[in-house]
Amino acid sequence: MRDNKIKLITTIGILVALSVVFSFIKMPSPAGTVAFDAIPGFFAAVFLLPFIGGLIGAVGHIATAATAGFPFGLLSHFIIALTMFVACYLYGVLYKKNRYFAIVSGVMINVFLAILILGSVYDFSLFLPLIPFLLVGSTINVILATIIYESLKKVKW
Asked: Structure pTM?
């Protein structure tokens, strides 16, 4: 029992660290916060638990925003981190039922939920130009997490 807890905590720590490292790998975008930090979050949502994946996804976004200087302010990036939590969490929940629906849902929630919330607080025109960059970045994050999970799920841990 103790070994399982140690293994879980170690795995979470490694995935959080990877998320922070991947936050430095950014896609060119006007905001500077489109990065590959969400891969470990989406992966953890199906490999471990959806809640853990959501937490890792949120931490990853905060790391990305920090390395870009929080271009939209702390409150905005906190909201985006919460939507990242929701995207990873729901991806993990939906994955067991329908992998393809989970992929599409993860991308759409990651892109459009944050824009809807931030657009209602600020001006939509500020965030609309980011949609193509967010769609590409989010799709890459989710697809790579799915490929990694599918490659590793048959391996005995």
From this structure: 0.93
